[in-house]
Amino acid sequence: MYHANLSTRDETPKRRHIPVVRMRATATLLVAGALAAVAAGCSSSSGDDFTPAAPGTRARPNVIAGELPSLGQFIRLADGSQVSSVSADYLFDAGSDQLRPEAVTAIEKVIPAIKVHDGDVEILGYTDGLGDAGFNEDLSLRRAKAVEQLLIQGGVPESMLEPIGMGEEGSEDNVPDSTKRKVEIVLK
């Protein structure tokens, strides 16, 4: 029987020992060569011979990260209530409970949906974790009441409105987080 490791006069296989240092050196050279080839393929010369890849056939999704729904739209929650949320930065100046003129226009768009609703309406004011917790609690309530007054002026019965100051609920202490500064209108 023929075997590559067997000689013709000895029937026991001979082992070939390759020194470990030689194998490591060979592996290092192979890796270095592969990296050099990749780097050479990635470099550009003058830029004139660059050809961009063909565009994909899949359409990009039409989603904007962190986008809030329009104030005139409500999202139905699992408990059956509906909520519309808007950033307090859009509605109020920093530290203020006075509605901006453009905020009044936006809130007026939601009044027709509230008028046809036959249940209670909660107006939840939130702040971030910056500043004194007591001040933030008071500010969130004053902002909720400012939105309540605008809804009352728009013809929504006061008896169905409940302004609630949520303060820093859900916010981290001393963290300026614009996603936590908001007013939510919840149709129960």
From TrEMBL:
<feature type="compositionally biased region" description="Basic and acidic residues">
    <location>
        <begin position="178"/>
        <end position="188"/>
    </location>
</feature>
<dbReference type="Pfam" id="PF00691">
    <property type="entry name" value="OmpA"/>
</dbReference>
<dbReference type="InterPro" id="IPR036737">
    <property type="entry name" value="OmpA-like_sf"/>
</dbReference>
<dbReference type="GO" id="GO:0009279">
    <property type="term" value="C:cell outer membrane"/>
</dbReference>
<keyword id="KW-0472">Membrane</keyword>
<feature type="region of interest" description="Disordered">
    <location>
        <begin position="164"/>
        <end position="188"/>
    </location>
</feature>
<protein>
    <submittedName>
        <fullName>OmpA family protein</fullName>
    </submittedName>
</protein>
<dbReference type="InterPro" id="IPR006665">
    <property type="entry name" value="OmpA-like"/>
</dbReference>
<keyword id="KW-0998">Cell outer membrane</keyword>
<dbReference type="InterPro" id="IPR050330">
    <property type="entry name" value="Bact_OuterMem_StrucFunc"/>
</dbReference>
<feature type="domain" description="OmpA-like">
    <location>
        <begin position="79"/>
        <end position="188"/>
    </location>
</feature>
<dbReference type="InterPro" id="IPR006664">
    <property type="entry name" value="OMP_bac"/>
</dbReference>
